[in-house]
Design a protein that fits this description.
The chain is an alpha+beta fold. The chain contains 16 helices and 17 strands. It folds into three domains: 1-55 and 67-100 and 261-345, HUPs (Rossmann fold), CATH 3.40.50; 125-199, no CATH class; 222-254 and 357-425, no CATH class. It has helices at 17-27, 32-38, 40-50, 55-64, 80-95, 118-122, 149-167, 175-184, 224-231, 240-243, 245-251, 284-291, 330-335, 337-340, 372-384, 416-423; strands spanning 9-12, 70-76, 99-109, 114-115, 125-136, 188-199, 209-218, 235-237, 256-257, 259-260, 270-274, 277-280, 310-311, 320-323, 327-328, 359-365, 389-395. Strand 13 (310-311) and strand 14 (320-323) form a beta hairpin. Helix 1 crosses helix 3 (40-50). The longest helix has 19 residues, at 149-167. The protein is globular, with a radius of gyration of 26 Å. Keywords: Aminoacyl-tRNA synthetase, ATP-binding, Cytoplasm, Ligase, Metal-binding, Nucleotide-binding, Protein biosynthesis, Zinc. Residues 1-424 form the Aminoacyl-tRNA synthetase class Ia domain. This is Isoleucyl-tRNA synthetase.
């Protein structure tokens, strides 16, 4: 309306655990073992098919609300071109020392059997969560510092309670068994309940556990100061979010855990033959050159991309390079959208200077300050040392009758079509037409 040519490109976020969980539910699966027995190829094919089930419903709704968007040529995160841009981005980080593997305490969902990033954890905190409070009796040590037999028995017994707990599926299921055993052995001094704030998996509602495990990280802390200063260049509505919710998040930034031990997602295209020999592949052409495979003709998802191997060129190795099994955090897919939707830099190299970057504005709800707003801001800062968007319109959330955020998981979502039928755009009333005849 002001003379600008606005690109109204639609898009489909198609990867991630929400899709996997829906297919698991349809198949009656409750574990990753069942997925692998069923077959990763078959499982991922069902994931691929499921993400387009509701395309027509979405198109009808956008038309009903007058939302102007090009749905004839959308970006789709599962397409090879989109995935290839993701590989290129990771290669840029790898070459600059910003992509690394480390073993550290990581928030882990025992239901999804995968790590979560810090911004995913922030989406699932709950206040007033009840947990057991247990005080255990130990025998005092002697004065030479030697542990008494009774104390040793306690340690051995608790190590075996740990084994039983690991066999339990959900967090807390083993608590009654542990308390019962401690009581029978006269080792329970006091038992109670305390309430505190605790993180839950934002996808499946399972309480998280902190495991020491190996994951892949992007070193966002290397540009922490720039993340903060670039935020000052963004115009926020309401403006208190800039230094409040979003600013506080940036000032407490930690490295981004991007690897997920799952199936339906952008594969991390790093090959490894030994712990010290790792190759990061930045394009399909690189993969073809290394492996002599016709990779351009295959689906780049698991399990097909897993079958492409090559000989390690290291003088100390000469083993077979195989892809690491993890896939990317789906928030990484979302954050690379400004580049991947154009298959940059393999095509549309001009987006750097033709006005498509950065975006003039973005509009999402307040929960995206630690989701899409963050992933866009982090990747743009790392890649271009610039903002991803100049203006933000940050919306509130429509709550249900109990004050909860509407969620498909909770089943408290209001069907938008019923609201539109009752309160939205209406067709004009029919006007009776009188036939006029002449004699």
């Amino acid at each position: 309306m002001k003379g600008y040519r606005v690109i109204r490109k639609g898009g489909w976020d198609t990867h991630g655990l929400p899709v996997e969980l829906e297919i698991e539910k349809e198949l009656g699966f409750t574990s990753k073992r069942e997925i692998e027995e069923y077959g990763i190829a078959e499982f991922n094919q069902r994931c691929r098919e499921s993400v387009f089930r509701y395309v027509k419903d979405w198109e009808v709704m956008t038309d009903r609300i007058g939302y102007w968007v090009d749905m004839d040529d959308p970006y789709v995160t599962l397409e090879n071109d989109y995935i290839e841009t993701g590989w290129w981005i990771l290669k840029q980080f790898w070459d600059r020392g910003l992509l690394y593997q480390d073993r550290r305490g990581t928030p882990h969902c025992p239901r999804c059997v995968s790590s979560l990033s810090s911004h995913e954890v922030a989406l699932g905190y709950r206040e007033n969560t009840p947990d057991p409070s247990v005080f255990i009796k130990f025998e005092a040590t002697t004065l030479v510092g030697r542990r008494s037999a009774g104390s040793a028995d306690v340690s051995a017994g608790l190590d075996n309670d740990a084994v039983d707990a690991a066999r339990q599926h959900r967090f807390g299921d083993a608590d009654p068994d542990i308390c019962e055993e401690l009581t029978e052995r006269n080792l329970l001094y006091h038992q109670g309940i305390y309430r505190h704030t605790y993180p839950f998996c934002w996808r499946c509602d399972t309480p998280l556990l902190y495991y020491a495990k190996t994951s892949w990280y992007i070193r966002t802390t290397a540009v922490k100061d720039r993340l903060v200063s670039a935020n000052s260049d963004i115009n926020w509505y309401p403006d208190h979010i800039r230094e409040g919710r979003f600013g506080e998040w940036l000032r407490n930034n930690v490295d981004w855990a991007i690897s997920r031990e799952r199936y339906w997602g952008t594969p991390i295209r790093c090959g490894s033959a030994t712990p010290i020999s790792t190759t990061c592949v930045g394009s399909v052409a690189d993969l073809v050159a290394l492996s002599c495979a016709a990779a351009a003709d295959i689906d780049l998802h698991r399990p097909y991309v897993d079958d492409i191997t090559w000989r390690c060129a290291s003088d100390n190795c000469h083993g077979t390079m195989r892809r690491i099994p993890e896939v990317m955090d789906a928030w990484f897919d979302s954050g690379m959208m400004p580049y991947a939707q154009w298959h940059y830099p393999f095509e549309n190299i001009e987006i750097d200077h033709d006005g498509r970057l950065p975006a003039d504005y973005i509009c999402e709800a307040v929960d995206q300050t630690r989701g899409w707003f963050y992933s866009l801001h982090a990747l743009s800062t790392l890649l271009n040392d610039d903002v991803a968007y100049r203006n933000v319109i940050c919306l509130g959330l429509i709550l249900d009758g109990r004050g909860r955020k509407m969620s498909k998981r909770l089943g408290n979502v209001v069907d938008p079509m019923s609201v539109l039928d009752a309160h939205g755009r209406r067709r004009p009333p029919l006007v009776p037409v009188h036939r006029i005849t002449s004699r």
